[in-house]
Amino acid sequence: MAYQLFPPVKKITYGKAFCELGRLRGAVCTELDAQAFSGLPENLLPVIASDAGVHCYRVGQAGSCPAPGTAQGYTLQIAEDGICVTAIDSAGLRYGIDTLRQILNQADGRVNCLEIQDYPALRSRGLMLDISRGKVYTREYLLQLVQILSKFRYNVLQLYIEHPFDFKKHPEICEGSGPVTAGDIRALQSRCRELNIELQANLQCLGHFHRILTRKEHMDLSESDMFWSLCTTSEGAVQLTDEMFSEYLPLFDSQWVNICFDEPYDIGTGKSAHSGKDGPQLYVEYLKKIHALAAKYGKRIMIFGDVILRHPELLPAMPKDIRYLDWCYDPKSHYGTPAIFNKFGLDYWVCPGSGNWNTLFPRLDGSLTNINNLLREGVAADAGGMLFTDWNDHGGYTQPAAGYYAYGHAAAAAWAGGAPPSKGEDAYIDSVLALPGYSKIIKTFAKIYQLPPIWSKNRSQCVMALFDEPVFGKAVRGPRPPDGLKAYDLALPEGVHTVLERHSQHPLRPVFSIPESTCAAIAEAAAQAKALALQLPECPAREQLCYQADAFALMTGKLALSRKIIRRFEGGGLTVRDLVLLEDEVRVITKRYVHLQMRFINIWLQVAKVSEIDISLTYFAHIIERLDYLRDWISRQREVLTAGGKAATDFSGYETAGYSTLPTY
Q1: pLDDT of 483 higher than 70
Q2: Do the domain assignments include residue 444?
Q3: Cα–Cα distance measured from residue 581 to residue 519, given in angstroms and rounded to the nearest whole number
Q4: Which uninterrupted H or E stretch holds 112?
Q5: Cβ contacts of residue 90 below 8 Å, gap of 6+?
Q6: How far apart (Å, rounded) are the C-alpha atoms in residues 164 and 101?
Q7: How far is the CA of 658 from the CAs of 142, 636, 655, in angstroms?
Q8: Structural contact between residues 25 and 43, judged by C-beta atoms closer than 8 angstroms
Q9: What domain range is 273 assigned to?
Q10: Under 8 Å CB-to-CB from 108, ≥6 apart: which residues?
């Protein structure tokens, strides 16, 4: 039989004979922990040998098969009298045993004799997890996560840090953020080492510095009144970075630190403007200073490549040992940027994204397109690796478990060198997560994002609608989605233009109203997804997915009530009885928001420290306050009507207090 293996192996040759598994005895292996062998039959569980110079797993009478010459690659041979997996490193041995496990799961007492030779298209396959936008994951959750990452064949992990590290020299930096500690990093480092995962340091060192620059101790280091970027001509900025490095960088085995350096919007516009140099020049000069600081602690730097892509003329002046990170999260058919990095002979990785930020649920199809096409171009243009990014913008209110599907797909695509075949992927991801049916749930939710106008570049209108102002919010008052508006299409129909919202530095799609027919389709998909989620074993993933289903249902329920209230008022003929019933409907939906908020807190605390949960809870506070105000406003209209007056059917006197919806730029 032909075995279904995922990610697909590079070469497999089948023999004509079979190996009877029950007859095999005497397994031996080197250098792997017990977790690598979970799920193997008892007679195939090995004794770990002490010879650290040999990377092999042998069962029965099998001799050592020839090891491949590729790092992380493996050779797997199944003969009539034994099984052998050989690799030149422990990572390859782990991956070979993973493939063997997949074969055994498809066998019924015996397996085909075969030989497999396999290796990754990209040697570095990393995840960057944002813990700086409100949600700081617990040590326990991170240790569980690296187990999953190892099974997906990731071998790099970064925790994106702006401020939530427990800096002893500068406690004001992380104050109130529930930071990760040196102990957390050491524990994570130890487990990553066991699982062949390189834990790399990550620390913002230029832009995205708002949280630190708004501390009174560091305001003077800001380039401008945006309080966004460090002043590149300030020696104090260099000194602060040095003091942060001194505590943080020695915790990591890896030689690499990601200093980010992305989106320095205000560089050269404020205090450094007097230098007579433009932003790009200041960028290079400051980068050299941080490069030297990193070298002081034995580290090499990687940076996001957006500035260099805009200003390739800077490259001759840049340090030569930098690794560049080519990021773009749009669902494009062609990117072109890997070819640019390759043209200049640069060490670079490609960086697609999970789409699990500014949303109730990951923008899955867009993420998969982003992964497939950016990786395909990266492999063709000699990229050295992938850093898959999972951001947590505006409070980290998204749920992590829904993003695991994209994690699995990205790792498989990096191993395969582009889009892996869909056959076998769902079963593989479900198996890694030990959640049968998980993939079907994810794909059921994902149908929602095919409905215009839910998908929007870098955000999703569903979460905006959940927290929208109930009477004057754009989800009910905004323009109707134009004909020709498509999900995951960066182009807009003729006559429709992008907007630049307050605080945003990037053009965005306009916010459209969500039609009633779309709401009905959302409610149906959410109900189907919840029914499937309830079939999962009780675990945090099940709770998160059920929460998301109920959030979609509440969003559509609120929009239905908003439309009902607007129609009843603007339609005329209001009676006191009508208003009493509307008041009660607002009371009920307010109660649903309170209950959803309570579940949100409980789910958050299962995976994260209290950290900055207040950011997300403020969104709940806003919508609950607005609903409470609406109920009181309707009550006052009822009193006016009872006294013989006229209710404000045009909503005159209704005050929004300037509230619209939550930030999603």
Answers
A1: yes
A2: no
A3: 23
A4: strand 110-118
A5: 30, 31, 32, 55, 196
A6: 39
A7: 39, 21, 8
A8: yes
A9: 124-416
A10: none
Q: Which amino acid is at 665?
A: Y
Evaluated on CA atoms 83, 89, 90, 91, the torsion sign reads negative
Q: Are residues 375 and 496 in the same domain?
A: no
**Distance between CA 379 and CA 350 in Å, rounded?**
9
Q: Exposed e or buried b for every residue in 196-206, given b needs 16+ CB within 10 A?
A: bbbbbbbbbbb
CA–CA dist 589, 634 (Å, integer): 15
CA–CA gap between residue 467 and residue 616 (Å, rounded): 11
Is there a contact between 640 and 646 (Cβ–Cβ < 8 Å)? yes
The confidence score (pLDDT) of residue 39 equals 86
DSSP letter string over 532-579? HHTTSPSSHHHHHHHHHHHHHHHHHHHHHHHHHHHHHHHH----HHHH
For the chain, how many residues are written? 665
pLDDT score of 505: 87
pLDDT tens-digit readout, 291-321: 999 999 999 999 999 999 999 999 999 999 9
Tokens of 187: 């524990």
The total number of structural domains in the chain stands at: 3
Q: Are strands 110-118 and 74-79 parallel, antiparallel or unpaired?
A: antiparallel
Dist. CA 436–CA 426, nearest whole Å: 9
Count other Cβ atoms within 10 Å, centred on residue 444: 21
Rounded Cα distance, 118 and 76, in Å: 9
Separation of alpha carbons 84 and 27, rounded Å: 10
Domain membership of residue 653 (yes or no) is no
Do 393 and 480 belong together in one domain? no
Same domain, residue pair 144 and 284: yes
The Cα–Cα gap between 30 and 615 comes to: 48
Instruction: Examine the domain organization and report whether 542 and 581 are in the same domain.
Output: yes
Owner of token pair 């790009």: 280
| Helix and strand element counts for the chain (H, E) | 19, 17
- Write the pLDDT tens digit of every residue in 151-200: 999 999 999 999 999 999 999 999 999 999 999 999 999 999 999 999 99
| pTM, 2 dp | 0.97
CATH of the domain at 49: 3.30.379.10
Quick one: 470 and 588 in the same domain? yes
The answer to whether residues 353 and 367 touch, using CB atoms and an 8 Å cutoff, is yes
In a domain, 367, yes or no: yes
User: Are both 517 and 630 inside the same structural domain?
Assistant: yes
Which pLDDT tens digit goes with each residue over 229-243?
A: 999 999 999 999 999
User: 90, 55 in Cβ contact below 8 A?
Assistant: yes
Please indicate, yes or no, whether residues 284 and 175 belong to a single structural domain of this protein.
yes
pLDDT in tens, 545-570: 999 999 999 999 999 999 999 999 99
User: CA 597 to CA 540: how far, in whole Å?
Assistant: 16
- Same domain? 199 vs 156: yes
- Of 357, 405, 348, 339, which is closest to residue 616 (Cα–Cα)? 357
410 phi and psi, to 5 degrees? -65, -45
Q: Angle of helix 139-151 relative to helix 425-433, nearest 10 degrees?
A: 140
Helix (H) or strand (E) holding 257: strand 256-260
Tens digits of per-residue pLDDT, 43-71? 898 888 766 667 899 999 877 788 888 99
- Of 100, 118, 136, the last residue of a domain is 118
Q: Which two tokens stand for residue 226?
A: 């945006």
CATH number at residue 280: 3.20.20.80
- Residue 398, classed as helix, strand or coil, is coil
